[in-house]
Amino acid sequence: MASAAQLCPVATKSLALTHATGCSAAPSVNTKQALIPRSLDGTVCRAGGNALRLLAAKESSGRRSQPAQSLTPVCESFQSAAEEVSSVSRRSLLSASAGLALSLSALGASSPATAADIDLEEWEKVELPLEPGVVLLDVAFVPNDPKHGFLLGTRQTLLETKDGGKTWVPRSIAAAEEEDFNYRFNSISFNGEDGWIVGKPAILLKTTNGGTSWERVPLSARLPGNPVLITATGKDSAEMITDEGAIYVTSNGAYTWKAAVEETVSATLNRTVSSGISGASFYTGTFSSVNRAPNGSYVAVSSRGNFFMTWEPGQSYWVPHNRNNARRIQNMGWRADGGLWLLTRGGGLFFSEGTGVTESFVEAKIAARGFGVLDVGYRNQNEAWAAGGSGILLKTTDGGKNWARDKLADNIAANLYAVRFVNDKQGFVLGNDKVLLRYRGLAA
């Protein structure tokens, strides 16, 4: 296997990050030559590169306005009072108006409750030492110490727990503070004491002692896209994927890496423009979401949500697929039985027919009330939870045939972006504005 120094790529034309129409195809990039990260003994390359924002979920979700209670009668009373005091002095009228305005405020809708004010039946709110505006993105626990875990997010957020997620404290990594970047930590994964973190701008962090200390693994500045998902697969072994579809594996603690695909997604699509995939011609975009199955297969959604792609171990290229619905795809992932789930913008939830990869999906009836559902997480084979905009939280206990909304979550003034179950007894829902829900199950 070639060393990282030998695999340092020569300068190549960077790929555009947006969709182009009526232009020539992007240059083909061979991942085995241009996508290899540098190892610890190679020349340090500055992390860099930009990519489209991965939280496309924000485009279709937002906070709900609270209903204005009893506003109409008050307004009518105010109008009548104004007509009756037409002969009163201006100062008296202003005084009366001020009093009526206070009444309006008292009778108006209450402000949305935060998650701390909500007592959910199966979830509890966890207080976090964070500033408002941080979006939580991933959580993982050390297998050898199931109460010891880490929580990631935007604005270089890294929190640590040693009590199973009941309390969290901030952590800083010196290796990530050497440069003037505000990193977005996208993904974290552990296998034994080995742990990995990836983020944007392109950064890769590694621990061999369960997170007690972290070191930075230099990446090539020419790495197409940014790492969005990392999976610890064994001792000194990991698999990393970027938002342009480059997949790498290491089996020697990141000393060297091997490309698992021959080329980027853009190169594949532009080489096969006659594939019949809608929206794939002259594609130079990135993934908006990527999810990995336990068997190593991937499903990814194009940045505009107009098609999806899959990859299975042993394949040289990504395989594109048409969506079966007029609505654009929001997110996709794997069911507990190996099938696919698919979310569309506007709150649609679909399940593939059978297991494995297919383009045939059946819609499930859910009470999303028009708010975007952003993620689905499985607690076991039959029970799953779906979360989304404005505190939408849904549950199924029959594998997705029927869904019920947790109405107690409706007043959470936050978007819920991710559902993560570590095991059937340990799960979390990650949101923005310091919202973290911890699974506690039904009371006995």
TrEMBL record:
Transmembrane segments: none annotated. GO terms for biological process: photosystem II assembly. GO terms for cellular component: chloroplast; photosystem II. The keyword Nucleotide-binding does not apply. Keywords: Photosynthesis, Photosystem II. Signal peptide: none annotated. Residues 119-439 form the Photosynthesis system II assembly factor Ycf48/Hcf136-like domain. This is Photosystem II stability/assembly factor HCF136. It comes from Klebsormidium nitens. The lineage of its organism: Eukaryota, Viridiplantae, Streptophyta, Klebsormidiophyceae, Klebsormidiales.
